[in-house]
Amino acid sequence: MIVVSITMNPLPEKQLEVMQTLLSMIEPTSKEAGCLSYNVFCDIEDRNCFSLLEQWETREDLDHHIATHRFGALLGIKTLLSEPLKIQIHTVSRSEGMEAIHATRNKGSQPLPGRCGERSLI
After folding, report:
1. Is 109 inside a domain boundary?
2. How far apart are CA 50 and CA 86, in angstroms?
3. 52: domain CATH number?
4. pLDDT band at 120 (very low <50, low <70, confident <90, very high)
5. How many domains does the chain have?
6. In a domain, 103, yes or no
7. What is the DSSP letter of 111?
8. pTM value?
9. Residue 58: which domain range?
10. What tens digit of pLDDT does each residue of 40-91 get?
11. Which of 80, 88, 78 is nearest to 54 (CA)?
């Protein structure tokens, strides 16, 4: 799996335009081959900071996406930003879920303070 993280800070007067551009990309990009998820987030501490978090099945799927006009439009918003896009691409070789949390917590599980020796998984 390939995970892409893109962070951007629009100029204050261009925030709405950037947000509309990002929101318009969600549905069509989500339908592209190999797209596992495509999400837009707004930072709760800095309302002028947006993030895209994308997950792709393969690098080839991502490369196809990067070659689209839609991704070109994303790159084109650079004039609306106060600083360049920050893009990180991660290749994930292994993913774990809640079972990893349970396994780790059960390894050296100690009684929780004030619980008379009871153990908690979470």
Report:
1. no
2. 11
3. 3.30.70.100
4. very low
5. 1
6. no
7. P
8. 0.79
9. 2-95
10. 999 999 989 999 999 999 999 999 999 999 999 999 999 999 999 999 999 9
11. 88
